[in-house]
Amino acid sequence: MLLMVSYNHLLKIIKKERFMIYSLSNFINTSINQFFCNLTQLFKNLNNNPMKQLLATVLLIISGFSCINNNPQELIDEDRMFSKFSKAHGMNKAFIEFAHDSAVILRDHSMPVVGIGQLSKLYSRPDTSFSLIWEPLYGAIARSGDLGYTYGTYTLKLTDSVAYGTYVTIWRKTPKGWKFVLDTGNDGLAE
Fold first, then answer.
1. What average pLDDT does range 17-27 have in this prediction?
2. Helix-helix angle 18-29:7-16, to 10 degrees
3. How far apart, in whole angstroms, are the C-alpha atoms of residue 31 and residue 24?
4. What is the rounded CA–CA span in Å between residue 54 and residue 158?
5. CB count in 10 Å sphere of residue 106
């Protein structure tokens, strides 16, 4: 019977609560998904009214818990950690540490390096004669929440010179966190 509550009746209940007005305006200005994300806060403001709490619970279940955090800052921060790891431990260790098992590296004048096995072989040499750091300029995460990309600029410091360029990295979210699935760069950026 509770599930048959009409939409208009639901709106009347929502308007009775002060916090509901904020949620309704937020609903108008954002997506339905964001509105359902606010239900958890709404649930706290229902003043122990069992009927309203039950209704909020049903709405929360209906929403499918679809409050996926697609905040690109999370991915940008991961890319910065990748760069810091490269600075502290060397590029080779960083690229192995942050690579997905099926990662692909695209390099100038080379065939693609595919998979963690080939990456491990490529990056098995010492890398003490150079340092690679980068700074992400932008990132985005897909609506699904499990795929994203970052791009930015890099600095490659060699023993006797410095090179600058741009890069793009595509990331996949795994149970262990974000791992890159594709990385490539272009050299020649002016200082």
1. 42
2. 120
3. 11
4. 64
5. 14
For the chain, the residue count is 191
Looking at the chain, the domain(s) classified CATH 3.10.450.50 span: 72-187
Residue 9 is predicted with a pLDDT of: 46
Question: Which residue reads 């072989």 in tokens?
Answer: 121
pLDDT (tens digit, 9 = 90+) per residue, 96-125? 999 999 999 999 899 999 999 999 999 988
State residue 70's pLDDT score: 80
CATH: 3.40.50.1980, 3.40.190.170, 3.10.450.50, 3.40.50.300. Which one for 72-187?
3.10.450.50
Which DSSP string do the residues of the chain spell out, in sequence order?
Answer: -GGG--HHHHHHHHHHSHHHHHHHHHHHHS-HHHHHHTHHHHHHTSTT-HHHHHHHHHHHHHTTT------HHHHHHHHHHHHHHHHHH-HHHHHHHTEEEEEEEE-TTSPPEEHHHHHHHHTTS--TTEEEEEEEEEEEE-TTSSEEEEEEEEEEEESS-EEEEEEEEEEEEETTEEEEEEEEEEE----
